[in-house]
Design a protein that fits this description.
Strand 3, helix 4 and strand 4 form a beta-alpha-beta unit. The longest helix has 16 residues. The protein is built from five helices and five strands; from the N terminus they run E-H-H-E-H-E-H-E-E-H. It is globular and about 40 Å long. By secondary structure, it is an alpha/beta fold. The chain has one domain: Rossmann fold. A five-stranded parallel β-sheet has the order 2-1-3-4-5, sandwiched between helices. The structure holds 1,3,4-trihydroxy-5-OXO-cyclohexanecarboxylic acid. The site of 1,3,4-trihydroxy-5-OXO-cyclohexanecarboxylic acid has 10 residues, from loops.
């Protein structure tokens, strides 16, 4: 059984209500259901976490290696652009990591154009709304299966 850790970063708990013109009306619970369904089809199991706290997300990533997860699907949200700690945790854990974003961060404010996470991710999928997550999960499972 492939075990994947899914992490949603800060403010993603507000999806559905938060800036719907940018992030849409789909809630985090709906995204999680889509992911769980897609994972099941591919014989994978997911553990899904959300936190608004940087250190807590670092802890999730550190524990993922110990708990024998094979891959990490992460939307680091605002920490994408600021967190050296998150970047270092991903580099240290050695898990295949796919970064996802709902919005196209390169078509938005300049401060969103830099991702500290992208250099330590295998790849990044962005701009497709909730579909970024399912595309990211499929890509991650393909990578794990190809190993
Ligand atoms: C986001 C993009 C980030 O810039 C922002 O801070 C978010 C969400 C996205 O999914 O589009 O919180 O990661």
């Amino acid at each position: 059984m492939k075990k994947i850790l899914v992490i949603h970063g800060p403010n993603l708990n507000l999806l559905g209500k938060r800036e719907p013109a940018i992030y849409g009306r789909v809630t985090l619970a709906q995204i999680n259901r889509m992911l769980t369904k897609a994972a099941k089809k591919r014989g994978a199991s997911l553990v899904i976490k959300q936190s608004n706290l940087e250190g807590r997300i670092v802890d999730f990533i550190q524990q993922a290696k110990k708990n024998k997860f094979q891959g990490l699907l992460i939307n680091p949200a605002a920490y994408t652009h600021t967190s050296v700690a998150l970047r270092d945790a991903i580099a240290a854990c050695g898990l295949i990591t796919v970064e996802v974003h709902l919005s196209n961060i390169y078509s938005r404010e300049e401060f969103r154009h830099k991702s500290l996470v992208s250099p330590v991710a295998k790849g990044t999928i962005l701009g497709f709304g909730p579909r970024s997550y399912t595309l990211g999960l499929e890509a991650l499972l393909d990578l794990i299966e190809a190993r």
